[in-house]
Amino acid sequence: MAKELEGKVAIVTGAGRNIGRAIALDLAAAGTAVAVVVRSNKAEADGVVSAIAKSGGKALAVLADVSEAKSVHAMADAAKAHFGRIDFLVNNAALRDEKSIDAMTYADWRRIMDVTLDGAFHCVKACLPAIRAAGGGSIINIGGMSAYLGSAGRAHVTTAKLGIVGFTRGLAHDLAADKITVNCVVPGAIGTQRAKDAATPAHHLTHGTITGERGKPEDVAAAVRYLCGPGARFVTGQAIHVNGGAYLGA
Q1: What pLDDT, on the 0 to 100 scale, is given for residue 247?
Q2: How far is CA 208 from CA 31, 80, 146, 190, 248, in A?
Q3: Beta carbons of 45 and 72 less than 8 angstroms apart
Q4: pLDDT reading at 165 higher than 90
Q5: In CA terms, which of 127, 237, 241, 242 is 20 to 30 Å from 147?
């Protein structure tokens, strides 16, 4: 099953680094052509595209701000024009700021919702006609462990990420007749590249794993690849937790 997704096309948002990058690379390894979507860092997107091309795959760098419907529709149009179809959508783009509720403004709250939750809505609306036209496919929303366990300074983030789970369940019902599965992959504490001055998220310090180690972006990517694949056609409306047993150790 080295190329179980040969001939398929995926859009992956927030794909320039970390989990999004790993998802793009793994889907490409399965034979999928990938639209590598980033908001502004074209160099990062080009780096992912180059890595996929060197491995014999097909990819396209696309700049899009998922919080803006017009930008998202242009993203979907670019992917379809370049590859001819869309089979998979991975809603990975998100913001994960930390700020106490006392310091949080409505603008802070809205900024998270605009990207994480509204962005997923815009992407689904833009890509759905093409996925339907392809005869079905998969929508994968990337959640977050803090949405289930909570985290200090992340009331806005946990709200948006738990909203993604509700969005997943509703879409699964709406799109089942179209042979489109909709699932949420929920990463736990994953070792990712962060800004030099960024502190380790609080929930990474308070919720450990039972495996004794932090996960890798590739662990999350493997779950996404499975959910897009032929072996997961009977899996929909689910939240798949990739967290090294963190809930068992909570």
Answers
A1: 77
A2: 35, 42, 12, 11, 9
A3: no
A4: yes
A5: 127
* pLDDT at position 49: 98
Architecture of domain 9-242: 3-Layer(aba) Sandwich (3.40)
Question: Does the CA dihedral 14-185-67-149 come out positive or negative?
Answer: negative
Q: What angle do CA 69, 71, 77 make, to 5 degrees?
A: 100
H helical segments located in the chain? 18-29, 42-54, 69-83, 106-112, 118-133, 146-149, 155-175, 202-206, 217-228
Tokens of residue 22, six digits: 């790993």
pTM for this prediction = 0.92
Look up residue 187 and give its two tokens.
């990463």
Type of residue at 12 = V
**HSE-CB of 6 using CA atoms within 13 angstroms:** 5
Sign of CA dihedral 52, 53, 55, 56: positive
Q: Quick one: pLDDT at residue 194?
A: 47
